[in-house]
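#structure-requests
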Amino acid sequence: MCARHADVETVLACGRCGTPICPRCLVYTPGGTRCPTCAAIGRPKMYVLGPLDYARAVAAAAIAGVTLGYAAAVIFRPTAFIGLFPLIFAALGGYGIGSAIGAALNLATGRKRGREVQAIAGAGVVLAAAVRLFVVGAPWVMAVRDVSGLLMVVIAISVASSRLR
């Protein structure tokens, strides 16, 4: 009889502990068929962040965001003009900022991956965009009118998160 369903007769057993299991309880794993208890596989260590990893990631994203935001304010002036060169510079700037924040988080967390690290990287990119607008001046007006800056943020978030998948 199945260990979890007393009314079901079975000839199947867990490949690890030998517990009788029915087809409803059966879990296929890379190591064979298991009962639900033995099949409980945790996340790989590269996707598990401890409190110290979170602290390092947030600190790295903040430092990189402020530094890159200031550098972007000096190099990439906000513009409402939509032309070929501003879009190319915005794409290059977004790629550079995203790559730098992704590399900073890789270094700070010991190459940890996952959605949590991607979210922290996205926050770092948004911080860089805010610093850029504050350094240039008139952040609330330019946040909406700066087309190249918005493109830069989208590309930077995409690049940073793809590096941390």
